[in-house]
């Protein structure tokens, strides 16, 4: 089945933090304008961030900006498909124009054009999924890195951080999402590699691993009002996007200054030790 899942967009937003919530200096974060990303954007904005939301769709940007501004939060937005180099450049330019630098990056882009056999996926499907889900976060961070470095001296006191989201459904028996699962597993490895590479620069890299979150994406597996048949050790109800937001705010704070290279599961239960 083609066309189901999270969609083909790259949803990223930017956030700038004034003095207060995260330690005093203005900072910038990129996250999504939709679903889990929107919940993270709202939480960070409520914690004092100036937010620049983005999506590949203008109406997602407009809706997010209107909603957050309606709560009295400091928000702007721009269209961006992170799979396109020119869009990533525009996103970086927007952040620099509005806030002059970048302290935090939160990537919540994802695409899943195929629900079906992993080995039956076409080369075009593999290319699209890997381009957006794996390559794009790395390329966006590479474009932002010089501006993140300029925000501080690279010492441990700087709050410079990058957070990836890896919705890892391989923990659950969702066999029809094999290509997507593979891409998100690769993102876990990217987190580990970048954490080591960027540690000397004082930049931390972590990965949020949501479990079964009640979003449009999960309609691939079951109807909106139907609860999944998980073992009794899982929490009873599906998680809401807002339940991912607090951990990201924590990871972007000085309280998480000694946390990097971690894949942090927010899933109600994880079978690993």
Automatic annotation (TrEMBL):
PANTHER family: DEHYDROGENASE/REDUCTASE (SDR FAMILY) MEMBER 4, DEHYDROGENASE_REDUCTASE MEMBER 2. Gene3D superfamilies: NAD(P)-binding Rossmann-like Domain (3.40.50.720). Belongs to the short-chain dehydrogenases/reductases (SDR) family. Transmembrane segments: none annotated. One of its GO terms (molecular function) is oxidoreductase activity. Keywords: Oxidoreductase. The gene is LOC490617. This is Dehydrogenase/reductase 2. The keyword Oxidoreductase applies. Signal peptide: none annotated. InterPro entries: NAD(P)-bd_dom_sf (IPR036291), Sc_DH/Rdtase_CS (IPR020904), SDR_fam (IPR002347).
